[in-house]
Amino acid sequence: MLSRLPLAAAMIALTASPLAAFDINAMNDAERDAFRAEIRAYLMENPEVLLEAIDVLEQRQANEQAASDVTLVETNSDDIFNDGFSYVGGNPDGDITVVEFMDYRCGYCRRAHPDVNALVETDGNIRYVIKEFPILGDQSVLAAKFAIAVQQVEGEDAYFETHNDLMTMRGDVTPEALTAMANDKGFDTEAVMAAMESPEVAEVINANHALAQRMQISGTPTFVFETQLVRGYVPLDGMLGLVDELRGEG
């Protein structure tokens, strides 16, 4: 019968060297049962080993994901940072570019909205790019079409004002509600509402969806801080920390 070994030592014996002579398949049934029983007994006596192993696995997976994300950003950098149609705000010459894939009906996007605006306004050196990425149903698509149509008909300032209003809008997004918003702002309402169904607006949404698919983005908000892809809501303190890190100040 095998003597009881610490699990770590057993694993080293099993996997540390490709020359290791140990082969569980070479055991007979009694030896294999004894070996499994010893491992189980060790884990039952030292369950913290499992938590340590899970921590190591999660860190390894996180490192692999981060490395993969950096590659995804590098491969798609032109479409992420300079596609020629996404809104660019903040400081266009800023030293840090922050890109947000967002959906107007996304609760976490709405939660992040004041934090993102605070980051851009207080820092003064952030280049901020918005990617319209409607994924939460018909109202999301309708809101995105309206925002893009406003941008194309009324310009960048009107777009950002509309973006802020849609982020804080209460109630359902309907053609009637959007028409009223356009009228209240003094837009060319007829032109904006017509542009919503134009090929040019559809092209922007389709391009953003294609980019998101290439980058394995399936949820909102998703941010790109220069080379770092950040999936999910990040509070203001976290954003500030990322920016400091990118500038070498963290």
Within CATH, the superfamily of the largest domain carries the name Glutaredoxin
* Lateral arrangement of strands in the main beta sheet: 1-3-2-4-5
> Spans with pLDDT under 50 lasting ≥5 residues?
1-20
Largest sheet: 5 strands, mixed
Q: Given the helix and strand composition, which structural class is it?
A: alpha+beta
Give the overall form.
Answer: elongated
Query: What share of residues is helical?
Result: 55-70%
Under the CATH scheme, the architecture of the largest domain is: 3-Layer(aba) Sandwich
From the structure above, extract its key features.
250 residues; alpha+beta; five-stranded mixed β-sheet
Draw up the topology in text.
Elements: H1 7-15, H2 29-45, H3 48-75, H4 77-81, E1 87-90, E2 96-102, H5 107-123, E3 126-132, H6 138-154, H7 156-167, H8 175-184, H9 189-195, H10 199-214, E4 222-225, E5 228-231, H11 236-246
Parallel strand pairs: 2-3
Antiparallel strand pairs: 1-3, 2-4, 4-5
Characterization of this structure:
- With 250 residues, this protein is of the alpha+beta class.
- It has 2 domains: 7-75, no CATH class; 77-246, Glutaredoxin.
- Helices cover 60% and strands 10% of the residues.
- It has 11 helices and 5 strands, in the order ααααββαβαααααββα.
- Strands 1-3-2-4-5 form a 5-stranded mixed β-sheet, sandwiched between helices.
- Helix 5 links the parallel strand 2 (96-102) and strand 3 (126-132).
- The radius of gyration is 26 Å and the shape is elongated.
- It starts with 6 loop residues before the first helix and ends with a helix.
